[in-house]
TrEMBL record:
Keywords: Repeat, Riboflavin biosynthesis, Transferase
EC number(s) reported in the record: 2.5.1.9
Superkingdom per UniProt: Bacteria
Domain Lumazine-binding: 1-96, 97-194
GO molecular function list: riboflavin synthase activity
Subunit structure: Homotrimer.
Protein name (database record): Riboflavin synthase
The organism of origin for this protein: Flexistipes sinusarabici (strain ATCC 49648 / DSM 4947 / MAS 10)
NCBIfam families: PRK09289.1 (NF006767), PRK13020.1 (NF009566), ribE (TIGR00187)
Amino acid sequence: MFTGIIEEVGKVSAFKKTGNFAVLQIECCKILDDITIGDSVSVNGVCLTVTKCGEKSFNVDISYETLEKSSLAYTSYGDPLNLERALTLSRRLGGHLVSGHVDCLAKILEIKKESGAYRLRTQYSSDIDRYVAVKGSISLDGISLTVSDIPAERVCEVAVIPHTFENTVLKYKKAGDYLNVEVDMIARYIEKLLKKETKADKLKESILKMQQLEDFL
């Protein structure tokens, strides 16, 4: 589990892809003092397991499913990566609960600086449209952001403060690039609960009708 507050921007020092499997080596500094083999790390919003630790880098394995659903499949040497260690019970939850399970990719339509901040507009899959709401949370490349506007179907805008922009991979992005998207998990749980309630209501209604029919007969 993560918060969506990026701790460090690392750099790809090696990327070896063999068929539907890949090994990624990430050069970094800050987070190395507190990670060990087996730990979970968010890499551009993808939860990955540390398989090797070095003095200046660590390795993670990437499965075929992750390669299919995330932008990590297009990683190359020198690319910057958002990094966040897993949440601990003693840390403040500064962003929102992020699982590191990518829902889809979003295409950047526009990045524009205005009024001292940056407006980021993205287009995403219709599969997640119902989970995106104004003032709701969304994770883009592992960054916890708040939806500021939904100008069209499958399109949302977020406002990015200068600190976040300068200290994440967003400063390297441009229109046409893709970001890993994870919707707010609370929205998914609410939807599931509502579906269960709807099914229960329909069952109650069906039973009531059967009882009324039996009374009539």
